[in-house]
Each structure stands twice: as structure tokens, then as C-alpha cells.
Amino acid sequence: MASAASARSKAPTKAAKANPNKSNVAEFSKDEELNAYREMLLIRRFEEKAGQLYGMGLIGGFCHLYIGQEAVVVGMQMALKDGDQIITGYRDHGHMLACGMDAKGVMAELTGRQGGLSKGKGGSMHMFSKDKNFYGGHGIVGAQVSLGTGLAFANHYRNDGRVSMTYFGDGAANQGQVYESFNMAQLWKLPCVYIIENNRYAMGTAVTRASAQQDFSKRGLSFNIPGEQVDGMDVRAVRAAAQKALEWARTGKGPYILEMQTYRYRGHSMSDPAKYRSKEEVQKMREEHDPIEQVRARLLRNKLATEDILKEIDARVRSIVAEAAEFASNDPEPDVSELWTDITL
Amino acid sequence: MATNILMPALSPTMEQGKLAKWLKKEGDRIKSGDVIAEIETDKATMEVEAVDEGTLGKILVADGTENVAVNTPIGVILADGESADSMPAAAPAPAAAATPVAASQEAAPAAAPVAAAASVPAAPEIPAGTPMVTMTVREALRDAMAEEMRANDDVFVMGEEVAEYQGAYKITQGLLQEFGARRVVDTPITEHGFAGIGVGAAMTGLRPIVEFMTFNFAMQAIDQIINSAAKTLYMSGGQMGCPIVFRGPNGAAARVAAQHSQDFAAWYSQIPGLKVVQPYTAADAKGLLKAAIRDPNPVIFLENEILYGQSFEVPKLDDFVVPIGKARVHRVGHHVTLVSFGIGMTYCVKAADELAKEGIEAEIIDLRTIRPMDTETVVRSVMKTGRCVAVEEGWPQSGVCSEIGMRIMEAAFDYLDAPVMRVTGKDVPMPYASNLEKLALPTVADVIQAAKAVLYR
């Protein structure tokens, strides 16, 4: 408890220390604010619905919700260029939605139906889209870091100006292959932005109990990879950092590390009661740092949107999610012949 | 007392090399530690240091001589006051004088060129009348990569020492010079990381050839091979393939002990989503590697260090490709079927020659591909002979031979006149000691004995 409490109070300070200059927060136009609000809300509502469907037994197995972390992927997406690739671990629903993958297809994959993005054969942790440059969806903690570095290798090989945005968590940051990848990425100056989503818990283990170096932006220091800590609850801060990092990688300077200080409200997976942290800790984050509420408050305060407009957005998002859930609940399971397809080409 | 300088062995599998250059001339004083000559093998160039002191009395093997067998006297060191004339030129010396490696002539199987037996039916992929050239497995592998790299810019090779060093086993010799550092990529010693990088690059459509210095080190990377390379196509509902080749020497070399002597054929062959290839001849090495590079799936390409230097006939064709998944009848016979692959074939080939002297005509099936396994060719042969011995260097439990036996049970039980037998490596980690190592591996005698057992002779 004590350590969790101290981690809680420390994180914002650390972010502030790392980014003393408040101008590191991007100025958003009205459209950008509204867009960020809509995108984050879609993820939030989608995940809440997924949680419901899980409770109803429609989704099985592992299901890791992204609730609380929405600003990270939405802010990053606001900075990328067409063609940049995205790859992440198993907490991937938010990334897929932010990449523009169809909510119906994602939800139907969660329910294991034929209309799922992987025809029902991948599930929550394994979806891909070449069209949207989304490379998964990987269930082995840390594996996506080498794979994402491989995407960057391909960009470098083809000299096509693309950047690989490789996401992983504070837990994965302790895997050996992460550092093997850091070494080669810097050695070969690969265009890769490593986004460490530090939500403070690797499953049930607090960062303070797992990491000798808790400043993840420094994890690339011995390879001379620059990094910075970012307030991952503020979508404007994320976008500002993303722009800087993407520019760095795209102009041939090599990889860049962004530690996104964020928080997941739910347990590690649906079966996790999250007894390792207090209700108060979660409550405090929700009340004081919620990424969506921050944008909502700004929109209203700056008179960029009325309550009615926000309600309208909310209603549209709810209807997208309801439609996705409807489809995912009624779509048939894959044909039994699918058992034997897609093993080799 | 005069001492012979012997041709040193640079590795446990080296049997001969080229005496590239003498750095001392007759009459020169030599101190222990002086570099006296340079020798070359197909794998490496090395300097020879003197162990003994004295005067270089006589050079017995001249600069530039090729194919000098290990332990051949190449020069004579005279003690003070001795005369060169008093020395018998090639007298056996009491001790090897020039090398830190105590070479054992009998450690490795003979590397004599293996000519295709007259009874071998031409492989269907080789048109009749095709001219043949003799080349080593090593050269065949290199040519396969070079040809595919010339044809497709998406093909590149990465791994430890593949570029500037020219390959730890010289399989990538010359590739850096032809294709440059963009396409021939030296990696740090970081198997897990570069295997993952290769898989990621393949997911974008590039065609990496990832060389493992040996497959023993691929265990560090096996998660990426299985969980990422093999399963992604299925998990993505067919959207995201992974056209990648993982290749390198596999199985026991010679005298390198347990951690460096393991056959992974059975391991990888269990994984849906992978193809697993293990060639024996140079022609198959070339044709199958080209097929593997073109294959849209992850292919595990298992080579063997001892086979690298062996020579075979390879068809002289502009584009010789051997299909993955097809076994080859290496020798036609009608009494007993011997099934093997890779280095296991060497035991079968010799055993069949011996058996023929006793009137037993063995048919040899070279599987070439372990997965997908060409059961049909094996079964067709077993239906003819009614008897089968399966041979591999790997361990017996859950091995490739176990699989072959089971498939024959499922498909040809009624044709069997005897239970299928297997000859495998022993169920022990590989020992270092020369005598124990021999005991741990299959032998030609084991194969002969098993063949006679299934024939009840």
C-alpha cells in the first residue's frame, strides 16, 4: 500500500520534472479537441461494452481493457503520417480502434465470430490489418518490441520514410529482447519510436517492486537512445511528444523512447480483482487525471463545444458500440472448415 | 632432434586445407610463437604458429598447394647443429608441432565426394540430359542465396558474422562483396532480438534469410520462430504471412559437446505453420534453399556442418528449384526401405552398399522435407519392400523416426512383414570424449543390423 501510494503521488511530479516546460503540451484546435474527445470516448465505451459482454459469457479467455490509457494511443495517432506502422502487445483494442479498424470487426473477434477481423481465430490479443498498418496484437510480453524493430528495419531497408510505432508496457520493459532490439535499432539508426505505456502495474506487480530503474525514459541510455517522460493522461502532451519523436526517427536519427505515464482503471484482465492497489488510488486518478474528462472540461471551459454537442458525440459513439455489440453477438461462429485454413500459404 | 611441422586442423571437422603461404624460408630461425605460414580452408584463413624452436630446415609442401590433409608434414624444424640432409623428409614425427588443436584424423566421417549411385533414378525436377557440375553443399547453399538475391531485392541475409567475416562456416562467402552491407547484415550476438527483427521485416513483405551460426543458438529465439513466425498467419485469419527462412548448421558437428550438438528436426517439425527442410545432397541444398526463400511461409532450413564440405553433382540449370514437401528415392531396392534425411543419409548410403554385398537390396528414401512430410513416397516404398528402418541422428523420444513409424502403421500396416525399426542418436546429451561421442551417434553397423533384423536374417 505504502509503495503504491507513493508511486501515485510521485508520477505527476516526475512528469513535471521531466517536462518542466509546460509548453510541451500541444495547442489543439477546436476540431482536434473534438476529434481527440470522440476517439477516446469510442475506446472507453467500446471497452466498457466488451467488459459487459465478457460478463455475459460472450467473450472468453483473456480480455485486457484499455480504459484509462486512451490518451496515449489517440495522441500518438494524431501525430503519425500515413504509412507509419503500429504494433503492440495484448492490451490492443484501443490501438485497433485508433488505427481506424472497424469496431464491429474488433468486437466480433472478441466474441470469436466469423466476421471478426481474424475470422474468429485470433481473439482479443491477435488482430492485424495491413490496410491500417496495424501489425498486432501479440500475446508474448515483449515479443512485439523485436517485431516492431523489424518493421523499422523494413522501413530503413526500403528507405520509404515510414516510422514504426512500437508500444509496450512497463512489464515488457524488463524483457531481455527489448534491449537486444534497442541495441540494433540505435546501431542501425532504425526509424522506431518506442512507446512505453507505464500504467504502473505489470499484471499485479507495481513498478516499484519490479523495476530497478523506474524512469523508463532512461531505459535506452546505455544505447544512447534519447527518451522522455510524458503525461500520458493528457492527449495534448502525448501528441506534442509524439511529433518530436516521430520527427527524430523519420529524419534518420534513429529510435526514440517515450515513457507514457498512464494508468489502467480496470484489472490486468477481466479475471483480475486488482487487490494490489486501493480503490482510493484508482478513484483519485479517475477524478483528477481522466484523459477524457480533461478534454471535456477544456471544450466546455473554452466554449468550443456545448453540452448538447458533447451529448450528440456521446450518442453517436454509443450507437457505434451498440451496433458492434449487436453484430458480435449475432454473427455466426466461424465455419468448422476454418479450423484447417490459414496454417500455411 | 628434428621435428616435423604438421598440417594443423582449424576445426574439428577440417580434413584438408590449402597451404597458402610460407612466411619463413628455409634457413630462417624460428622461435616458439612465430607465425610461420598461412593456411586456408573453405571456411577460414589461419596463421600457423611455431611451437618448437630451431631453424626451418626444409619446406616439404610448397606455397599454394591445395588439399593438404591434416597431419601431413609440411616442414621440418632442425635443432641447433642439425643438417637438413640428415632428415628423412616425411618421417613421422613424435608430436604434432604446429597447432594448438590436437587433430584426430578419425574424428569426422570421410568427406570423399559421394557420387550418385548408378541405380538412382533422376529426380523429377532435373530434366534428362542436364549437365552436372560437382560442388560442395557449402557452395550450393551460397549459390542458392546469391541467385535469389539477384532475382529479388526483397531478399536479404542477416546473422552473426555473415558479412565481413564471410560466414562463420563460410556459407555466405562473397555475398557482402556482391550485394553490399544493406542486404548482407552483420548482427550483434543477439539471436532472440534479430530473429524477432527478421520476423517483423517479413511481416511487411521482405524476405529475410536469418542465419543462425548454429541452430543450438536458435533456442534463444525459438519464441519468435514459433509464436510469431509460425502462428501469425492463422491468428490473423490469413492476412499476415511471414516469408522468412531460418537457416544454419544443425545437429552434431564433431567434438563440440552437448550444448553444440543437437538435432532440432523433431522440435520444429511439430509446429503447424512452419515448413522444415533438411537436405542431404548439394543439389537438394541448392534447390530446396531457393524454394525456401521463395516460399511465402516461415521455413526452417536445417544444414549440417559435416556435410558442408562434401561434394555432389548439381544440375547446371539457370534456375534449379526443388519443391518443398517431396521426398526422393535415393537408391532403388526391393528388400528393405531405409528412410532418413540430412546427415542420417550418410549412414543409410554406406549401409546399403554393405547390404548389397550380401545380396540385400535396400531402397533409400531421402525425406528432404520433414514438414510437410511426404508420407506417400515412404508408404509406396514400404508397400513394395514390406520392411522399414528409419534413421536419424536426433534423440529417439518423439523423434522424426517415431513419426515415420506411426505414419507407416496408419497407412501401410497390412503391408508390413516386420515391425518398423529405428536407428537414432542415443538418449543422452552429447559427450565430448571421442569414444563416447561415437557411441552416442548412430553407426553404419547399427543400420545394417536393423535392416537384417527386419528381414529376420
In short:
The complex is a heterodimer of chains A (345) and B (457). Chain A is an alpha/beta fold and 345 residues long.
Could you please describe the fold and organization of this structure?
- The complex is a heterodimer of chains A (345) and B (457).
- With 345 residues, chain A is of the alpha/beta class.
- Helix content of chain A is 46%, strand content 10%.
- Chain A has a single domain (24-331), classed as 3-Layer(aba) Sandwich (Rossmann fold), CATH 3.40.50.
- Chain A has helices at 2-18, 30-55, 70-77, 93-98, 103-110, 143-158, 176-187, 207-210, 235-250, 279-289, 291-301, 307-330; strands at 85-88, 134-137, 164-169, 192-198, 201-202, 205-206, 227-231, 256-261.
- In chain A, strand 7, helix 9 (235-250) and strand 8 (256-261) form a beta-alpha-beta unit.
- Chain B has helices at 137-151, 175-179, 191-203, 222-230, 232-235, 265-269, 282-294, 305-308, 344-357, 375-385, 400-412, 434-440, 444-454; strands at residues 3-6, 16-22, 29-30, 35-40, 45-49, 54-59, 65-69, 73-78, 132-136, 155-159, 184-186, 207-211, 245-249, 275-277, 299-303, 311-315, 328-331, 336-340, 362-366, 369-371, 388-391, 421-423.
- The A-B interface holds A 85, 87, 116-122, 126-130, 135-140, 143, 145-155, 157-158, 164, 176-177, 180-181, 183-184, 187, 341-345 and B 156, 182, 187-188, 190, 192-206, 223-224, 227-228, 232-241, 272-273, 275, 296-297.
